[in-house]
Amino acid sequence: MNPERYRDRRESVDNLRHSQLAKAFVPNWVRVLSQPPNPALSRPPELSGNGLDDLKTQDQAMGFRHNNVLHANHFRKDWQRRVRTWFDQPGRKLRRRNARKAKATTLGVRPLSLLRPAVRGQTVRYNRKLREGRGFTLAELKEAGVGRKEALGVGIVVDHRRRNLSEEGKKLNVERLRAYKTRLIVFPRKTGKAKKGDSSADDLKASTTRATLPLPEAYPAEAPRKITAEEHEFQAYRTLRTERANARFEGARKARAAKKEEEEAAKKK
Q: Low complexity bias: where (predicted)?
């Protein structure tokens, strides 16, 4: 056998092997783009155009793109076993009612709930309504003549953090405390040995109620009446504009009057 011919055949086999290995590590679309277009070769239907575009369309069809988490939809969670039910609601209702009865029995003749102040709701949306607050302020207790420690013993809640921001609200709660004191009956700790602050024997025999004072009306309703002639002639808008102008030009008018007085005093000299 001719050695030169054998060497040429060996080199052609090695070149073919290297080319096959290189193709194995190159993506399919790179090979498609690197080869010149040959109309004789038939392309598969999924690679109808540019290979990169075809891969993008395939990714979009599969439902994921970029570096995102793959979908892992769980459709077998057996949710019927995890449904929240409330079949014991009637029993819970009866249990709460019995607990309230037992608590009322242990309280004796004391009110069922503590006395709390009447406060306005927060924000412009709710400040027209009155509701029960956390506790009375120290200023309200002082004006009503109730001590801080005494209030804790007669069913009055105290809130040392709250502050009175209006005289109307403070006056309302002071009247509420005074009305509570007039209706309050304090039993002595030991029968026949009354101390300072305990009610008299006649008050102890009076009929009592366990309901607390209701909240006052937020805005007392006025009875309908006729408009007077003075109210009919009153110009509200004109009055507001006049008062606004007076407040706005008050300083300038005072400065002008003072300057005029100085000039008149200088002329007299």
A: 211-222
Burial of 156 (0-12, 13-18, 19+ CB in 10 A): buried
Angle, alpha carbons 38-39-40 (nearest 5°): 90
Q: What share of the chain is helix, strand, coil (3-state, %, to 5)?
A: 50, 5, 45
Both tokens assigned to 223: 């009875």
Dist. CA 186–CA 204, nearest whole Å: 8
- Residue recorded with tokens 């070769």: 41
Q: What is the pTM of this model?
A: 0.51
* Helix and strand counts by DSSP (H, E) for the chain: 12, 2
Residues with Cβ within 8 Å of 148's Cβ and at least 6 positions away in sequence, in order, are 138, 141, 158
Q: Enter the DSSP assignment of 156.
A: B
Residue 108 C-alpha from the chain's centroid: 39
Q: Are 230 and 130 in contact (CB under 8 A)?
A: no
pLDDT category, 34, cuts 50, 70, 90? Answer: very low
Chain segment 60-111, per-residue pLDDT in tens? 555 667 888 887 887 778 888 888 889 999 999 999 999 999 988 888 888 8
Query: What CA–CA distance (Å, rounded) separates 151 from 136?
Result: 10
Give tens-digit pLDDT for 187-202.
Answer: 777 777 777 767 776 6
Structure tokens of 157? 């809640």
